[in-house]
């Protein structure tokens, strides 16, 4: 039989640090890798790391009790504990009970926001409480502890998943990315969402022009009616928002390569009239669609009228709405901010 000796406080704190950092990184990775089923792997690792924090609670409780007896300002540490606890709770609620939403804010929005708020609080927490790793931490005993904790976290994840499916909780219906279906085939019931601070602009369709800037050729200017006349391609694609919902719609529009060809260098910049811009790898051109219609009707203002991008396999924040300009730019697509800042 293997006896796992409880970890010393220092190791518990260091393990918490690793789990928090790992969960933070995999959380953003889950948003970044796209909407393919493989993204389940990232989400599962993320969930196990997150639940690992709960596995350590009994040992951390001892540290907290001791820490609270000392004479120091406890408010920041307590605020940190509350943020982590509520954030974890929101993540688990989203993955099990479903897309709960209060005045447009989902459990997942709360989860991500609190994870971001937790970063400065964590820094504040560890600055006055340095825990140095030691070479003796690389021992068989520590390895056994890590395996025991990791195994318990994985079992906890399995138990949550099993309960979710046997109890037919909404979580059983979530997609690989953790998102829930809303309004497929019925665009008017699909949520209108912006990434961060953007807002639906007012657009005059009569004077609207889409600028297509091609390398070594003159700039194309397409009116709304010209775009409608060119909208010969239909594609059924899933829009999967990082806010935690997805919808499949039939989009109709102009394939981007029909306007730009497939560039052999740089990136394809798709720019909204609000300034919101995303850069794509050149070989994406045939997959990208400049949609003017959805579900057999023109786009609504909220969903990107007069024209919005459909970016198959990519998360919602790539699906630029109110597109005003497409161009080939010298900078590579990976040099942009991984997530929009607007
Ligand atoms: C889930 C993450 C964590 C939470 C919720 C948490 C919370 C707390 C709380 C509430 C206290 C007691 C209040 C106080 O000392 O003012 C405490 C103490 C402490 N924490 Fe954390 N902490 C976490 C992670 C960490 C990490 C990552 C480290 C360092 C790498 C750390 C190091 C310590 C130390 C050294 C003490 C003081 C123990 C003492 O004075 O005896 N904690 N923590
Ligand atoms: C350090 C902070 C974080 C912790 C401790 C944490 C922990 C968790 C936990 C425990 C779950 C529930 C897993 C389950 O039961 O299936 C979860 C779900 C989720 N988290 Fe986090 N998370 C953190 C940060 C983030 C960030 C920064 C993001 C995104 C940018 C994120 C995105 C998600 C998503 C999308 C889910 C749903 C996954 C699913 O339904 O399977 N998390 N998180
Ligand atoms: N110009 C612009 N386009 C945008 C956004 C934005 O904030 N500004 N948000 C993106 C995000 S995060 C999503 S999920 C989809 C939402 O599309 P919908 O409102 O049609 O559902 O639009 C994307 N396109
Ligand atoms: Mo989104």
Topology:
Layout (H helix, E strand, L loop, with lengths): L8 H24 L6 H17 L1 H13 L5 H22 L4 E2 L2 E2 H21 L12 H27 L13 E2 L27 E5 L6 E4 H7 L2 E9 L3 E11 H5 L6 E6 L4 E4 L8 E6 L2 E2 L9 E3 L12 E7 L13
Parallel strand pairs: 3-7, 4-13
Antiparallel strand pairs: 1-2, 4-5, 6-7, 7-10, 8-9, 8-13, 10-11, 10-12
Helix pairs in contact: 1-2, 2-6, 4-5
The structure holds protoporphyrin IX containing FE (2 copies), the ligand Nc1nc2c(c(=O)[nH]1)N[C@H]1C(S)=C(S)[C@@H](COP(=O)(O)O)O[C@H]1N2 and molybdenum atom.
The ligand Nc1nc2c(c(=O)[nH]1)N[C@H]1C(S)=C(S)[C@@H](COP(=O)(O)O)O[C@H]1N2 binds next to β6.
Shape: elongated
Strand segment tally: 13
Radius of gyration from the alpha-carbon trace, in angstroms = 24 Å
Which ligands accompany this protein? protoporphyrin IX containing FE, the ligand Nc1nc2c(c(=O)[nH]1)N[C@H]1C(S)=C(S)[C@@H](COP(=O)(O)O)O[C@H]1N2, molybdenum atom
User: What oligomeric assembly is this protein in?
Assistant: single chain
From the N-terminal CA to the C-terminal CA, the straight-line distance is 56 Å
Uncertain runs = none
- Topology pattern, helix = H, strand = E: HHHHEEHHEEEHEEHEEEEEE
Task: Calculate the mean pLDDT score and round it.
Answer: 95
- Total tally of structural domains: 2
Q: Which percent bin holds the helix content?
A: 25-40%
* Backbone structural class: alpha+beta
Largest sheet: 6 strands, mixed
Number of helical elements: 8
Instruction: Please report which band the strand proportion falls in: under 5%, 5-15%, 15-25%, 25-35%, 35-45% or over 45%.
Output: 15-25%
